[in-house]
Amino acid sequence: MLYPIPLLNLALSFLNIFLPSSDVAQHPHAKPTTNNTLNFRLRHMHAATSSAHIYFADVLPEASSLANELTLIPSVSIGTSLVRTTRPPSQEAFTTARHMSKHGQNAWLDWEESEVLGPDVTRRETLLLLAKMTGNTYVTPGSNGWYNLTDKWNVGMPVGWEPDDDGFRGYVFATEDNSTVVLTIKGTSVPIIGGGPTTEKDKLNDNLLFSCCCARVTRGWTPVCGCYRGDWKCNQECVETALIDESLFYPTGVNLYNNITSMYPSANIWVIGHSLGGALASLLGITFGAPVVAFEPPGERMASQRLHLPSPPSIHHITHVWHTADPIAMGTCTGKLSTCGIAGYAMESRCHLGNIIEYDTVTNLSWSVRLTNHPIATVIEHILSKPWPAAEEKGLEVPKSKDRTIDCFQWEFGNFTL
Ligand SMILES: *[C@@H]1O[C@H](CO)[C@@H](O)[C@H](O)[C@H]1NC(C)=O
Ligand SMILES: *[C@@H]1O[C@H](CO)[C@@H](O)[C@H](O)[C@H]1NC(C)=O
Ligand SMILES: *[C@@H]1O[C@H](CO)[C@@H](O)[C@H](O)[C@H]1NC(C)=O
Ligand SMILES: *[C@@H]1O[C@H](CO)[C@@H](O)[C@H](O)[C@H]1NC(C)=O
Ligand SMILES: *[C@@H]1O[C@H](CO)[C@@H](O)[C@H](O)[C@H]1NC(C)=O
């Protein structure tokens, strides 16, 4: 049995470090060298409660420009490029294919290929600005407060939304003409949904999604589902059922995306996320064909398979950005003595869906692997804010890489009985 350790909470609160404002003078933004840019303004904040209700708050133009100043985004002008994407023909078709796959049937989906305007992920400046948009802002809701999209009733601050709380929340940016919308999802630390009294449930969900077999790390752990069959064997169907029954992670993301679509019906939507928010962004990219950039995400390929999301013929519209000293993105925050293990989390998955940009901070900056290297602020301040010599040597602005291919290699999954 594991008990929460207060020290660890301290360590986790590191994950939410705001950017020091002294940085403003040191890193003025160079103007992008091409004119293929879009200008975004912060429009809304979003937050979800532990019961997965999604709330929005409008950001008034004055507050928006103040927020932009404080978060070092004087003008959010993002470099774009055409991105080839594949979308399911409809949400109904996608859901049907998903349900058929759950029942062992193969469903054919008539994926639609198209080219949309996406972020230019070959440019360092683009990644830097997207990372900043995903970081913290100091805005508080305007006079309208928080509202339910459906009934527009004003409410107080939803549970799980305090400036330094780790809820499932983020921002919505849009161009002046509403043609392109950027949805950011912040999940700086576990848990992603809620906080306080719901933490145990969230921990359970994360462990279902990103651990090999119900977070059964050692004999001393209380697993979050009963699928372990002894001797590194795990019942696959059992894990999938547990995930579908318990996890609000993916359905909440789908609701959020649909909410944004109903606010901006004809917009091209990008989804940008950090950490668990990045993993969720990627799953939404698979589901909706939206261009995605995920910073420091845990491996979400296994979660996608366990959720039976139909795989699109191409996943190049999804880009992952991480560095090698981050144990969450590397899938090495495992074992009972790791920081994650001590907190009762097993972040064991390592494989991602999409293109990979990997900063080898372990080799090139001699960093050691630790959880305090995971925050978006680390990525912004110490990685993306200056040129990366190892990439420039190859004539690139960002270091492209390949992903790992095997998750949970020591486990056997199948129809094992007890
Ligand atoms: C972009 O720059 C090119 C060459 O400098 C110019 O011909 C073109 O009109 C510009 N496009 C826009 C939208 O400003
Ligand atoms: C918005 O999200 C809520 C969940 O918070 C969901 O019940 C509702 O159907 C969504 N609205 C739209 C228009 O998609
Ligand atoms: C928000 O909407 C949901 C259903 O859409 C409802 O259950 C909930 O009570 C509403 N919350 C508030 C505070 O109005
Ligand atoms: C863009 O969307 C906002 C709602 O967020 C709306 O108030 C505004 O009128 C829209 N602007 C245009 C040009 O459609
Ligand atoms: C960075 O590390 C790679 C090995 O991963 C090495 O090949 C490269 O020379 C290093 N570059 C710099 C600038 O340190």
TrEMBL record:
Protein name as annotated: triacylglycerol lipase
CDD domains named in the record: Lipase_3 (cd00519)
Lineage start: Eukaryota, Fungi, Dikarya, Basidiomycota, Agaricomycotina
Enzyme class, UniProt record, top EC level: hydrolase
Organism expressing this protein natively: Multifurca ochricompacta
Annotated Fungal lipase-type domain residues: 260-287
Alphabetic keyword roster: Autophagy, Endosome, Glycoprotein, Hydrolase, Lipid degradation, Lipid metabolism, Membrane, Signal, Signal-anchor, Transmembrane, Transmembrane helix
Functional note: Lipase which is essential for lysis of subvacuolar cytoplasm to vacuole targeted bodies and intravacuolar autophagic bodies. Involved in the lysis of intravacuolar multivesicular body (MVB) vesicles. The intravacuolar membrane disintegration by ATG15 is critical to life span extension.
One Gene Ontology biological process: multivesicular body membrane disassembly
SUPFAM superfamilies registered for this protein in UniProt: alpha/beta-Hydrolases (SSF53474)
Subunit note: Binds to both phosphatidylinositol (PI) and phosphatidylinositol 3,5-bisphosphate (PIP2).
Subcellular location: Endosome, Multivesicular body membrane; Prevacuolar compartment membrane
Listed GO MF terms: phospholipase activity; triacylglycerol lipase activity
Domain of life: Eukaryota
